[in-house]
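for the writeup, i need someone to sanity check this before i put it in the appendix. the sequnce is what the collaborator sent (i think, or maybe the updated version? ugh). structure was predicted straight from it, no edits. if anything looks off just tell me and ill rerun, i have time this weekend
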Amino acid sequence: MDTLEKTITRNILKYLNSLPGCRALKRPSGLFQGGEPDITACRYGRRIEIEVKRPGGKATPRQAATLEKWERAGAVVGVVHSVVETRTLIELNFP
């Protein structure tokens, strides 16, 4: 993950962890975590899985397939490029 993506991820984590009833962490990256979303969180008992990308970036097919599996299991999922996009994702799913 490059510096800009790390900065975006850090800011998203700060935002998520400031929300009532929310706990978020950066998923470790490595050989066996390929395709797993960057951020895993839970808010009021509901799982959230977020893939962070630089502006204009897209999820790889493997990442998209993993997010789809999480969504089918009931998680809130998204590919985001900023805290603003993350806030929108949260507001849409936790009115």
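The chain has a mean pLDDT of 93. Residues 50 and 78 are 5 Å apart (CA to CA).
thx in advance!!
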